Amino acid sequence: MRIRPLVKSFQPYKVLEGDYRIWLDKNENPFDLSPEIKEEIFEELKRVPFNRYPHITADPLRERIAEFLGIDKENIIVGNGSDELISLILKLFDGDHIVISSPTFGMYGFFAKFEGINLIDVPLDENFRLQNVEEYAENARALFICSPNNPTGNTQDREKIISVLETGAPVVLDEAYVEFAKGSNVDLISEYDNLIVLRTFSKAFGLAGVRVGYAVGSEEIIDHLHRIKPPFTLDSISMKIAGLMLDHYDLVKRNIDYIIKERERIYRKFKDYAYPSEANFILMKLNAYEFLLEKGIVVRKLGGRLTGHIRVTVGKREENDELIGALKEFMEGRG
Question: What is the pTM assigned to this prediction?
Answer without folding.
Answer: 0.95
